[in-house]
Amino acid sequence: MSFTYQRAATLADAARSAAASADAKLLAGGQSLMGAVKLGLAAPEALIDLGGLAELRGVRVDKGHVVIGAMTTHATVAASREVQQAIPALADLAGNIGDRQVRNVGTLGGSLANNDPAACYPAAVLGLGATIHTDRRSIAADDFFKGLYETALQYGEIITSVSFPVPQQAAWQKFKQPASRFSLVGVFVARSAAGVRVAVTGAGAGVFRVAALEAALAKDWSEAAARAVSVSDDGLNTDLHASAAYRAALIPVLAGRAVAGS
Length: 262
Known about the structure:
Oligomer: single chain
Strand content: 25-35%
Shape: globular
Number of helices: 12
Order of helices and strands: EHEHEEEHHHHHHEEHEEEEEEEHHH
Largest sheet: 5 strands, antiparallel
Structural class: alpha+beta
Number of strands: 14
Helix content: 25-40%
């Protein structure tokens, strides 16, 4: 397989190049894309590398939000003092993604654009009610994730940053597959003035919220309240690692552990 490679000098340059070819792919950390290329699951005609765009990296706190550039690596998020102080659950999540190589190369924007059904970052974004900013618009988390490897991103649209509202309490629990370190089930819980949000990854075709858990925890923010909720296994995954029923049973257990540790 052959393809052209371009290291974008500016965001506008990257956007123009992405629009010029229907088979172009944006390269962030490459931890998902290059694996797909090696397996023959993706065959881009052009790769547009975003690695040189300094404006897409960095962490800052602004008006009650933690704003993280799309090209910021997982390791940088995990080590960020700003993230650790404002949303420690987010730093914890980032510090437990994959292995050391993945954390040092993989990026926030790349993870969200790929939207793997067992990825960790989508749970934090949906659980915190974050906003995804692109070179064209801002997209609420509830509108961003559309299904299996599918998002609201339009052709050639580039994620530039994500703003996470700082919650009153939040926590993350992950039951991982030991070899891949992906989530068999991962649960992110958050409580803020806007209410309670519970987001689950690894259990279905994509990240999703659990209304029953949110309602129970809004009334009683406790481990017991979470564990008392019964989650249906309808639409959940069954594979060689776990059945849909097992994943359904794990969700309130992990939610309870998260609340207990928040």
